[in-house]
Recover the amino acids of this structure.
C-alpha cells in the first residue's frame, strides 16, 4: 500500500488487483488486474485523465501501478 503525496489517496494491491481509492470515502478511482499488461495500460490512461489528482499524485500513482505490475509479471508474488 502507498499513500499518495497529498494524503487523500491510497493505491493498494489486494488479491491480484490494484486499487486506487480515496482514503476517507473509499471511492474507487481505478481497479485493475495487476498481472494483465493491457489492464495496466488502460489503468495508466485512466490515471492520466483523472481530475481528482494533481500532477504529483498522478506521477506517484503511475509509479506504484508500474511497481505492482512489475512484481506480478516477474512472478515475485
Amino acid at each position: 500500500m502507498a499513500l499518495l503525496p497529498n494524503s487523500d489517496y491510497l493505491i493498494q494491491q489486494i488479491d491480484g488487483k490494484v486499487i486506487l481509492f480515496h482514503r476517507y470515502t473509499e471511492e474507487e478511482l481505478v481497479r485493475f488486474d495487476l498481472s494483465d499488461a493491457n489492464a495496466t495500460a488502460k489503468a495508466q490512461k485512466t490515471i492520466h485523465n483523472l481530475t481528482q489528482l494533481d500532477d504529483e499524485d498522478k506521477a506517484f500513482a503511475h509509479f506504484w501501478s508500474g511497481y505492482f505490475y512489475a512484481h506480478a509479471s516477474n512472478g515475485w508474488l
